[in-house]
Amino acid sequence: MPVKSLKNFLDSKNVKYIVSQHSPAYTAQEIAQSAHICGKMLAKTVIILMDGSMAMTVMPANSKVSWDKMIKAMGTDFIELADEDEFKDAFPDCEIGAMPPFGHLFGMSVYMDEELTRNEEIAFCAGSHSEVIRMATEDFMEHCKPIVIGEGFIKSSTPPMQRNRLGRQQAHRHT
Fold first, then answer.
1. What is the pairing mode between strands 79-81 and 42-50?
2. What pLDDT, on the 0 to 100 scale, is given for residue 39?
3. Separation between Cα atoms, residue 25 and residue 109, nearest integer Å
């Protein structure tokens, strides 16, 4: 079941959404594969520290933060990745790394990659490593009210993952 605060919020707003279960996965790319969702549609949440305050960045699963570009886009002097120990208590009902991107439920601003707004649907972790929520991007934008930014994110250049006979993922090895 999704995080109770998120489920209650979405239900109170009569937002239509689908909860999907998948085998446990811990990286955005693994989640996308396990849930059979395109990596550009799955939104991953990354917690940052910006000028001493925590905030959420939300980007496609196949992207990562470009720190220099993010600092410039935000008009600040310093942004860094928050350490799990710094934010784990901010999400009491969530598994670490599976926080849904509704920052207002956790007292945080949300900065979203403009690329995600181009999709009809958005999917994201529902608070656990084995559930995702899918909903209309339009509804997400209306009820999350993220600050959309066009810079600060880049496509990841990590090697593609392959599945072995048992369905486990393996990275390509270069010799």
1. antiparallel
2. 80
3. 26
